[in-house]
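Following up on my earlier thread - several people asked me to post the actual chain instead of describing it. Fair enough. Here it is, all 228 residues.
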Amino acid sequence: MMTTDPSLKEVLHTANWAQLLDAAQLARVEAELFETFVPKGGFVCRKGDPVENWIGIISGMVKMNNFSASGKAMTFIGVPPGSWFGEGSLLKREPRKYDTMALRDTRVARLPAATFHWLLETSLPFTRFLLMQLNERLGQFIGMVENERLLDLNTRVARCLASMFNSHLYPGVDRLVQLSQEEIGLLSGSSRQRANQALQVLERQGLLRLDYGGIRILDLEGLRRYEE
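Reply from S.P.:
Thanks for posting it. Predicted structure:
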């Protein structure tokens, strides 16, 4: 069955934060939200850029990463469709602290900074949503540091996949995770070949299945608890 990407309006009206707005607030957001297209490998935003928008992913996939002085890349997280990010830099009114690149052709929703701050001033439910967003993001990054320092690679891949199922940060993720083995490697800090080996271990244990077009999660709680 053929599927089509959602329209910008559809993405807005299904966003968990937008459903908290009153009619006047939603009307202003709908009028000022706009869309851009970023091809695979392109930059959604660059480190050091002024923060002009709150960013949502309509379709595709992006990664947040940074590069060392020697050119070595470190990927922090992947951001799937239905997710919004960049609120921390907007709240602090500081330049971007990371690069965000498209892992595949990606449609990006952008809410102007002025509208974002207006919502903060006029919508208590939106402010509460952002508090939850920041708290969940903090927990995500603490988990990443723990995984990187304490866990073997097979476990890191399991936790990487499980972290995609955060209903607040990633409300649109389906049990078929449309990530390639190369992308899993980037997100878990390994090579494509080593990520493939880890995925095969997890598949043999009945936690997931490698399907055409992605990775089907069979036992989410098992992935969250997995440890060697």
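The chain has a mean pLDDT of 84. That should answer part of your original question.
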